[in-house]
Design a protein that fits this description.
Largest sheet of chain A: 5 strands, parallel
Order of helices and strands of chain C: EHEHEHEHHHHEHHEE
CATH class of the largest domain in chain A: Alpha Beta
Radius of gyration of chain A: 31 Å
Oligomer: heterotrimer
CATH superfamily of the largest domain in chain A: FAD/NAD(P)-binding domain
Largest sheet of chain C: 4 strands, parallel
Distance between the termini of chain A: 19 Å
Strand order of the largest sheet of chain A: 8-5-4-12-23
CATH class of the domain at 11-132 in chain C: Alpha Beta
Distance between the termini of chain C: 52 Å
Structural class of chain A: alpha/beta
Helix content of chain C: 40-55%
Strand content of chain C: 5-15%
Number of domains of chain A: 4
Strand order of the largest sheet of chain C: 2-1-3-4
Chains: A alpha/beta, B alpha/beta, C alpha/beta
Number of helices of chain C: 9
Radius of gyration of chain C: 21 Å
Shape of chain A: elongated
């Protein structure tokens, strides 16, 4: 745009200005570097395309020239000016001048900022010793990291210890547990603590102080990252369908019977979605359809003459393997009866009464055993652990990740990760994938060894701070917290976790928080500069 | 850590490949991210919104594209394909071919002057052929790298030796018709396959009338229509008369759960149809949607609630059924003939627009790639894995994630991608 | 060159880096045109926009302000835009107290894919502000009077009690406080409105006193309120240590400002 360099030179504090066609080209960047050196510039403003793509480039150019990269300001006169006012070149030029004026006003007030580093303690804490926790631990140990694997029960294995066989291959759950336990044992980097629970966790990414209780003993150690792999529980259908744990049982209880060989039933009726996909628990627990298919097939395998009925609402067998598995199940002679939630089956007088939606008829099925497929529910200890770690849970009690789509195994709080059924009902394949995923994410700060703290963060003026705690309430990253100091309760910023969004600063009742690089003064300077050249 | 970081090859620049590359790069491992198309982004860049949050897809994707591009440890190779993989875990030798773009990637600033002058018009692939583009074009607006590409099949100069008008108007001298395909060899310790999926072509089910009736479209075509940066600027209009549809039929399991085509379940279609119906209502509250489904699969986090919300608040009706045939009337409205599962009655319904939820199928050319990689495919041509080592292929050192492993949603693909990165890292950082 | 000069409003936009600013960039890349009245200041999150800076913008006689963030639920910083929403709601109330049309402040959500929508928003808002006229046209105040009111509004939004209440809205209405209490949105909105109005009057009184020492009647004249109302506020301001008696004229005590 013509005349802009001339205009810029007319502004206070501007000692050098140049029009360039392609400032982002190598030649353009060199010119900037030379200009900085020759004119002893201490601020640089580039007016061109968009900072969203090019700010890092110009910042590193300044850095190369020996100028602090945060003394650079970018003015967008292309995407937000010349490209959108193509029919009004005069007014567009005026606008560009106004934007440059605003930019210079801000640049004058910019401060040099330094990145700092926080050391990461080279140890991972994995809470939960089931298949998920063990997989994460082994993966991290293979990378050479120290791992502390904490398990509440007296042995590793988690939910798998209660299962008989696994779908879709029907291998024994106990075998898989043994294989995984051996892998864990073979890794000297993994310290296993069974019969142990996490008592307290203090600190932040890279520097967690963990207290673990093992019986009477308390152990303190440091961890750099934490992985939550605490699994989940299964709903006990107390009061539903006449559940009695003997002739009306859960799938897990059925697995025990199959394992011990105590199953003595000829006619088995399985009811799906017991206590799930209803008002209280509005979710689908994903694994119950396949569990029912598996157990039904195992029953038929052991006793081909057994009569097995599966009463379902929707058959959830997603993906390549499981649809085939469903096909196989149908071929073994299992009877599938579709029921609708408006007409629930009833268990009475030794029979199951169900309205078959597809036949359009009510059926009475006398049974030897009724098996209720109940949902995976959040572990009763989850909310407690969530509080200790200061991470959120969702409305169903499952741990809540940072972003449902793109950060499924991270928490919003840096340095803590989640995987497996602690996150959401998952089958073993998924739990293992997620375990590798969480281990991989956790290994990033561990590999780097330190966390760079972005300098564009909040800073508390303790003199002004009244300790009201509104900032702590506002911040979703737990990056600002109230602590006791000699001067009373004051807000303290955890630089490693602060993202610099400004939500705390713009709400602080005492205006005690300064947002670096986006200070009130810097923003106001732009407003004032604009007001000086109103249209 | 004191280990010497080695290098990993990631094949596929969609969300899974990008996530794997970023995780590896952040760990300090060097990554070669290879993408066949002119820009990274994959299928996720084609979506309007993503379930169950209804986040704008490209909005959550673009920061990752920018991160990948700027990452000191990631080298992106677009317009590139893997031609051969030799060696073994820890030490693979990969032959990579980069096809000529005919545009200098370091000079092009995406100003668009060339495309404005190009006389050729061809169907645009990214927009599912719903609009035309020039022979010199950006693969998509927010694509990374943000440079133009010349389509050598349709460029007048490259096919017939005439024109070159783009070169005349480029002020950066970024056009280079002399560019040749180049071959390089990379030495890597591990490979991650993340090539994603293709949509099933419903021309293979003639009773649904795809390509015969203009108002029968696929779900990806719908996504482009309803997307604000798509061919109609996000205005949902029927292909035949550009009218805004008031009734829409979403037909599920097209090319999946089907003995003739693919037996497997495509996993994500129940959810994306729900999303698409919600978006239609958001754009126009006069819209009523009908989802013709077999079994409703909404098992992921927040999915069941999402479906319930759709039914409750977005004028959506779920009809358990099997659609037998689609025909059209003289106004090109569609007549959907279906068997209502519950009543076993056959019914028909007239709608303005029909959207076929086409199954996710393996990419064209996957058999060749599998051979090059020396890995096995399963019976459906997805990369074969063991349920207990879900991210390992049949060849040690080669890992897999995302939809080329099995149809899966974005959260799972991302978790798998991070997992595959971890597995690859275990391999190279011994 | 037209004889009749139509009013060209000056509009300032605060756009968040991740969504709305990106949407504006996309409008550019796609060449969607819009009027050049808007100048944009980039912030990382719309939650960075302190209500007081919106008032500062109006104090300096710009005609319209846009605050654009990510769609609710999509905020790059998770919850930032929820705070933006609440804060800007209160800011509009403060503008109303000052006599301005709250329509001069536009709060909306634009995603990075909504280039065309951004352009349309700017077009529509520019027209809307154009119709409203130059700042203050909707009142019958002289510029200096308007300015005083706007300063009082700004100070209201800077006041700690007000900021404290604004910041607690999410928690009080959506979650529960530590006592397990929850209040309804309408109740809260009422409470907020009353708080703003009360504080606004206090600030106007303090501003009108300025450096002078005035009687209640004199203050009432300056702020155009009843003596009763002024007296009530003076009593509470005195209690809060913001004014003190500094002399008597006849039977009327006179007050001056003290403290900060």
């Amino acid at each position: 745009m013509p005349g802009l360099a001339k205009y810029a030179l007319s502004l206070p504090n501007v000692v050098f200005a140049k029009d360039n066609q392609y400032t982002c080209s190598d030649a353009g960047l060199t010119e900037i570097k030379n200009a900085i050196a020759e004119n002893k510039l201490n601020r640089v403003v580039v007016a061109s395309c968009t900072p969203r793509t090019h700010e890092p480039l110009f910042r590193s150019t300044c850095k190369d020239a020996g100028l602090n990269p945060y003394l650079f300001h970018f003015v967008n006169i292309r995407d937000q000016c010349s490209w959108v006012h193509m029919q009004e070149t005069e007014r567009a030029t005026e606008k560009a001048k106004a934007l440059i004026r605003m930019g210079v006003a801000r640049a004058v007030l910019l401060e040099p900022l330094e990145e700092t580093e926080v050391e990461i303690y080279p140890c991972a804490l994995v809470i939960g010793g089931g298949i998920t926790g063990m997989t994460s631990a082994v993966s991290l140990a293979n990378r050479g990291f120290e791992v502390k694997l904490i398990e509440k029960e007296d042995r590793l294995g988690g939910t798998l210890n209660s299962l008989h066989r696994l779908y879709p291959t029907h291998e024994e759950a106990s075998k898989l547990v043994q294989v995984k336990m051996k892998e864990v044992e073979r890794k000297p980097k993994i310290e296993v603590m069974t019969s142990s629970e996490v008592e307290e966790v203090e600190g932040f990414v890279g520097n967690y102080d963990v207290t673990v209780r093992q019986g009477e003993k308390e152990r303190l150690f440091k961890a750099g990252v934490i992985i939550v792999a605490t699994g989940a529980d299964t709903l006990k259908p107390v009061g539903m369908y006449g559940y009695n744990g003997k002739t009306i049982v859960t799938q897990i209880e059925l697995e025990q019977m199959l394992k011990e060989g105590t199953l003595n039933a000829h006619t088995i009726v399985m009811i799906q979605c017991v206590g799930s996909r209803d008002e209280k628990r509005a979710y689908c627990s994903k694994v119950c359809c396949l569990t029912a298919l598996k157990n039904a097939m195992l029953i038929k395998e052991a006793n081909p003459n057994a009569q097995v009925f599966v009463l379902y609402r929707d058959m959830v067998t997603q993906g390549t393997r499981y649809e085939d598995y469903y096909g196989n199940a149908r071929e073994t002679g299992i009877t599938f009866i579709k029921y609708s939630p408006e007409r629930q089956p009833a268990v009475e007088n030794g029979s199951v009464r169900v309205y078959d939606e597809l036949l359009g008829e009510e059926l009475i099925l006398p049974y030897d055993l009724v098996v209720l497929s109940t949902p995976t529910i959040a572990h009763p200890d989850s909310s407690d652990l969530a509080q200790k770690l200061k991470v959120p849970v969702d409305e169903n009690g499952f741990f809540l990740e940072a972003h449902v789509k793109l950060r499924p195994v991270d928490f919003a709080t840096d340095g803590i990760y989640v995987c497996g059924c602690a996150h959401w009902p998952a089958n073993i394949s998924e739990s293992i994938s997620q375990a590798y995923g969480a281990a991989s994410r956790a290994s990033i700060p561990l590999s780097v060894g330190h966390v760079k703290t972005e300098p564009l963060i909040a800073v508390v003026d303790e003199y002004e701070c009244s300790g009201c705690g509104l900032c702590e309430l506002t911040c979703p990253f737990k990056a600002i917290r109230i602590e006791e100091t000699e001067k009373g309760r004051k807000a303290k910023v955890i630089a490693a976790s602060c993202k610099g969004c400004g939500a705390c600063g713009a709400g602080c009742p005492e205006k005690a928080i300064i947002m670096r690089h986006f200070t009130d003064e810097q923003l106001l300077a732009q407003v004032i500069a604009l007001a000086e050249v109103k249209a | 850590m004191e280990e010497k970081p080695e290098t990993v090859l990631v094949i596929g620049g969609g969300i899974a490949g990008i996530q794997a590359a970023l995780d590896l790069g952040d760990m300090g491992i060097k990554v070669h991210l290879v993408e066949k198309k002119p820009a990274i982004g994959g299928r996720m860049a084609q979506l309007d919104k993503t379930f169950p949050t209804n986040d704008c897809s490209i909005c959550i994707l673009s920061p990752k594209l920018a991160d990948c591009f700027r990452h000191p440890n990631i080298t992106i190779h677009t317009l590139s394909e893997v031609k051969n993989v030799a060696g073994e875990i820890g030490n693979f030798s990969v032959e990579l071919r980069k096809y000529a773009r005919f545009v200098k990637e370091n000079e092009c600033v995406n100003c668009g002057e060339c495309a404005a002058k190009c006389p050729v018009k061809v169907a645009d692939e990214f927009d599912m052929e719903l609009r035309k583009r020039e022979a010199i074009y950006p693969y998509y607006l927010q694509g990374v790298p943000a440079v133009m590409t010349i389509d050598k099949e349709n460029c007048l100069y490259l096919t017939r030796g005439v024109c070159r008008i783009c070169e005349k108007f480029c002020t950066r001298e970024a056009i280079d018709f002399e560019q040749k395909d180049t071959d390089t060899t990379l030495n890597v310790g591990a490979v991650i396959v993340a090539i994603g999926f293709d949509p099933f072509d419903p021309s293979g089910i003639p009773q649904y009338g795809y390509k015969r009736y203009r108002n029968v479209i696929t779900s990806l075509e719908y996504e482009r229509l309803i997307c604000a940066s798509g061919p109609t600027g996000g205005h949902l209009t029927r292909p035949s008369d550009k009218k805004a549809p008031e009734t829409i039929a979403f037909i599920q399991c097209v090319g999946s759960r089907d003995l003739k085509n693919n037996r497997y379940c495509s996993s994500v279609c129940c959810m994306h149809a729900t999303k698409e119906a919600m978006l239609a209502y958001e754009h126009d509250p006069k819209v009523t949607s009908y989802i013709f489904y077999m079994d409703l699969r909404a098992a992921g986090k927040g999915f069941q609630k999402y479906v319930a919300r759709g039914e409750r608040e977005y004028n959506m009706n779920y009809i358990r059924s099997r659609v037998a045939k689609i025909t059209e009337d003289r106004n090109e409205n569609l007549i959907v003939r279906y068997e209502e599962t519950q009543s076993s009655k056959t019914r028909k319904m007239t709608v303005d627009l029909a959207v076929l939820a086409t199954s996710l199928i393996p990419r064209r050319g996957v058999e060749k790639l599998a051979k090059v990689l020396g890995v096995e495919l399963d019976e459906y041509n997805f990369f074969k894995t063991n349920p207990l080592s879900p991210l390992d292929t049949t060849r040690p050192g080669i890992f897999v994630c995302g939809c080329c492993r099995e149809p899966t949603d974005i959260p799972e693909s991302v978790a798998q991608a991070s997992g595959a990165a971890g597995r690859a890292a275990e391999t190279v950082m011994r | 060159m037209t004889l009749k000069e139509s009013f060209e409003p000056d509009i300032l936009g605060f756009l968040c880096n991740w969504c709305s600013y990106a949407g504006a960039d996309l409008a550019g890349v796609s060449r969607f045109q819009y009027p050049p009245n808007l100048r944009i200041i980039r912030v990382m999150c719309s939650a960075r926009v302190d209500p007081t800076i919106v008032l500062e913008t109006f104090i300096r006689e710009l005609d319209g302000v846009m605050v654009l963030g990510c769609h609710l639920g999509d905020c790059h910083y998770m919850t930032g835009n929820y705070y933006t929403e609440k804060r800007m709601k209160t800011t509009k109330n403060a503008l109303k107290s000052a006599g301005l049309s709250p329509e001069r402040l536009l709060v909306d959500w634009v995603s990075a894919a909504e280039g065309e929508r951004f352009a349309t928003l700017v077009k529509d808002f520019t027209e809307r502000v154009r119709k409203l006229g130059p700042l203050g046209k909707e009142t019958d105040l002289k510029p200096q009077q308007l300015r005083t009111r706007l300063v009082a509004a700004k100070e209201t939004l800077a006041q700690e009690r007000v900021r404290w209440l604004v910041g607690r809205e999410r928690e009080l209405v959506e979650d529960k406080n530590v006592f397990g209490e929850k209040i309804f949105q309408e109740e809260f909105d009422q409470l907020m409105l009353q708080t703003i109005e009360k504080e606004f009057v206090r600030r106007r009184i303090l501003l009108s006193i300025g450096e002078d020492t005035l009687s209640v009647k004199e203050i009432a004249q300056r702020v155009e309120a009843s003596s009763m109302e002024v007296l009530r506020n003076i009593v509470s301001l005195e209690r809060d240590g913001l004014v003190s008696m500094a002399g008597i004229e006849g039977n009327s005590p006179k007050y001056r400002r003290i403290g900060g």
